[in-house]
Amino acid sequence: MTTWVDDPEGGRARGPSAVARAWAEVLVRPVRFFGTGVAPGDQAPGLVFAVCVAVAFAGGRFLFDPASIPTAFGGPAISAVVSLLFVAVFVAPAGLHLTAALQTVLLILFVRDRAGISETVQVIAYATAPCALAGPPVPELRAACALYGAGLLVMGIREVHETTTVRAVAATVVPASLVFGSGFRGFDAIATLLARWYII
User: Fold this and answer.
1) For a designed S-S bond to 192, which of 28, 139, 151, 182 qualifies (C-beta 3.0 to 4.6 A apart)?
2) 8 falls within a domain
3) Number of structural domains the chain divides into
4) What is the domain range of residue 164?
5) Among the listed ranges 3-7, 11-15, 104-108, 116-120, which one has the minimum average pLDDT value?
6) Residues 6+ apart with CB under 8 A from 125
């Protein structure tokens, strides 16, 4: 599941500028992006992308909410660095591939003719793009990022696996809830907003 294709046809370029370009493209032109930027077996750029998003999210949390930094590694600075390394090396890759495995099982149930597991990994990775901005503890921002990410996941699954919107929604409800609702704190943000509006 970590195949890196040297010369993918229609796959993503490598390097920091390519990651930044992919981030902008998937946010602005998602249909085109998922139609041309996802290639069979070329999931390594997607993995790098997901790691960058996860580190940006965690870094934003630590920067704007220092109380969220784990204290098990010494001082705040060391704890933040160790935590970010842990996110990059373990949390993001494991979360991406476990979610892709779950998504694949659900696709088997809802989509008869579908693309491969590698494409599913890439779709999930690139759908996380908005959550790079969700680090600050602003409920409106986190809720918007989570909802946009969930929408990108539906759109990507629909385009890459060539299925209907209804089937894509049915297949992505659980993975989207885990990734964007729990992982990127979308549920907490929405609950905070609902409580605030109810009080008002």
Assistant:
1) 139
2) no
3) 1
4) 16-199
5) 3-7
6) 43, 46, 47, 49, 50, 53, 96
